[in-house]
């Protein structure tokens, strides 16, 4: 294929990738749309190893002037998205270039914060569901003291919502529906190192198996009944022959 072929020109032009976090949240990161486009122009050169692209060329691509590009870069400096660094050239002279490391760090921090917020939202939803289930069983809103007990289970003791649900079911089945009874159940499981619903269910299964075996071993042995077999006197049979 010749260099004038559109496909060859497209491939030779290369591609610029962008983080979806930046694409979807650049406003939350403190960037305007114009600043995002300027960054993408710089990135198209940075991806090819050109750390100090010609601002005049970038301005032509954006169909604006150099001053507008510099204004946008200075705005990004104020928002701590880019800094200007110095480097030494081969001839010993120094040259300035635009370093977007602060923006990259901000993207990483935003991703971590987003993950933390998701976890916090999940915990908040689980907490609300736990309160709703307990209140539905007791048939009334929990008192402030009772709410503190449940919050301590979640925040201090780190009991999962599923384990608290299991303790609630145990209390209902035993006709002992109170938070004090549930607290004893939860502490008992914790002392035995049972940290998941699976652990508790396995523990209960093994307990029931041992209980069944003990009951069977304490039963009185019964006489095995079978068909009556006649017992012959072999000596008598030999005399009659």
From TrEMBL:
Limits of the DnaB/C C-terminal domain: 131-204
Cross-referenced Gene3D superfamilies: DnaD domain-like, Winged helix-like DNA-binding domain superfamily/Winged helix DNA-binding domain
Ranges where the DnaD N-terminal domain occurs: 18-115
Domain of life from the UniProt record: Bacteria
One of the Pfam families matching this protein, by short name: DnaD_N
Annotated spans, Disordered: 200-241
Annotated Basic and acidic residues bias: 200-212
Coiled-coil regions, chain positions: none
Family recorded in the similarity comment: Belongs to the DnaB/DnaD family.
Stated name of the protein: DnaD domain protein
Species per Swiss-Prot/TrEMBL record: Limosilactobacillus fastidiosus
């Amino acid at each position: 294929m010749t260099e004038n072929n559109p496909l060859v020109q497209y491939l030779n032009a290369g591609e610029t990738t962008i983080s979806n976090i930046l694409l979807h949240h650049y406003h939350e990161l403190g960037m305007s749309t114009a600043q995002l486009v300027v960054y993408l122009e710089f990135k198209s050169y940075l991806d090819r190893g050109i750390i100090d692209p010609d601002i005049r060329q970038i301005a032509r691509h954006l169909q604006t002037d150099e001053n507008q590009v510099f204004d946008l870069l200075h705005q990004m400096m104020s928002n701590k998205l880019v800094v200007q660094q110095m480097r030494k050239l081969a001839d010993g002279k120094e040259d300035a270039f635009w370093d977007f490391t602060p923006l990259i760090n901000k993207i990483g921090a935003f991703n971590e914060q987003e993950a933390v917020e998701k976890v916090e939202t999940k915990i908040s939803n689980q907490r609300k569901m736990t309160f709703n289930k307990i209140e539905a069983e007791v048939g009334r809103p929990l008192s402030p003291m009772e709410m503190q007990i449940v919050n301590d289970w979640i925040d201090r003791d780190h009991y999962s919502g599923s384990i608290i649900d299991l303790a609630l079911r145990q209390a209902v089945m035993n006709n002992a529906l109170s938070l004090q009874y549930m607290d004893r159940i939860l502490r008992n499981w914790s002392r035995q190192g049972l940290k998941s619903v699976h652990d508790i269910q396995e523990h209960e299964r093994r307990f029931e198996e041992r209980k069944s075996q003990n009951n069977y071993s304490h039963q009185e042995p019964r006489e095995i009944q079978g068909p009556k077999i006649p017992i012959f006197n072999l000596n008598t049979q030999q005399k009659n022959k």
